Amino acid sequence: MSADNFDHLLAASITHGGLNQRQIAQILNFKLFGNPAGFMRLTQLPIGEIPPTPSSRESLCKDDDSSERLLLQAAALLGEPVGYVQESGGSIINNFFPHRTQSRAATSDSFDTELDLHTENAFHAIQPDYLLLLCLRQDPTSEAITYVASVERILDKLSYEEQLFFLNEPYNFLSDYGPSEKNQRIDIDKHQTVLYGDPDAPFLRFDPQFMLAFSNRAQSLLERLRDIAWSVVEPVRLDPGDLLIIDNRRTVHARSPFGARFDGSDRWMQRTFAICNARYYTERLGKQSRVYGLVTEL
Ligand SMILES: [Fe+2]
After folding, report:
1. What angle do CA 45, 20, 62 make, to 5 degrees?
2. Separation of 61 CA from ligand 1 center, angstroms?
């Protein structure tokens, strides 16, 4: 989709997004005040006519754009909807459904690989502030579960010393973005702490598969943090018309494996990201954009 076409869709989303006043208030509340779980969910949203789930991106054809408008209206309430060059070719709305060829790869398109808990794009200087996942169709046997663990719940299980450690100890966060695609493992010299921001109410970034520790202690605490995060996860099973909004600076998330039939009945999710400080990024990068490449430093 061209930038002009996208702007038309975004404008239409604001006036005809499909969210009612109560739902708009819930999203704004979540943005301004947050909640201990780090996510919110809206159900039974008007997603329009959903054609059979495609089995490849090339065969994706969706005439009714109700779900896209809904997703963008919600994203615009949280910040600026953005995309990444390495995700779905830079599309701001990403469609996820099982691909026969990618079933074993640990990407968002995969369907039978359990992903570990992670913050989205923890290595990226322009990290998404929110992740929005809209369910268009559940998997045929309703196995798919999304897990979310919030920093608040995790901190409850960490000692004061461990919290201090994670506020001060840098880890090397590897990039899974290459120049044009993802699923890489690249050292971009991104040394940063797991907890950051206000020590009394810190943000969290964590992606154990893409983090290198600098000491044995750091490695063992990384594993402990991962276990703690899994012990406090909240499972979410999404139905068609459910929108899950995840605060990506205060949570980690994962997804369970699920089956696919490739007959049009498979799970179909739409996703977008929202960022809260686009103008700051424009200032630092000297360029205005809704679609970012790999940015390692600002
Ligand atoms: Fe993710």
Report:
1. 40
2. 25
